[in-house]
Amino acid sequence: MTINLLFFTVILKRNKVTAEEAIRYEQSKQRHEEYVLKMLQYRHMQ
């Protein structure tokens, strides 16, 4: 009886973030937070 073992190696690459991407990410995060706050205020009014 033979046992065949198959080994997988996973290489994780760190994504290099450019300044533009970092700014875009921060802006989208800020817009999302503003949206959530508006929705919470709206729910509070009802």
Q: Runs with pLDDT <50, length 5+?
A: none
**What's the total number of strands?**
0
Overall body shape: elongated
Could you state the oligomeric state of the chains shown? Answer: single chain
Radius of gyration, in angstroms, nearest whole number: 23 Å
Gap from first CA to last CA: 71 Å
Descriptive account of the structure:
- There is one protein chain.
- It is built from 1 helix and no strands.
- The protein has one helix at residues 19-45.
- The N and C termini lie far apart (71 Å).
Keywords for this structure?
46 residues; mainly alpha; 0% strand; elongated
Could you outline the blueprint of secondary structure elements for this entry?
Layout: H1 19-45
Task: Provide a compact summary of the structure.
With 46 residues, this protein is mostly helical.
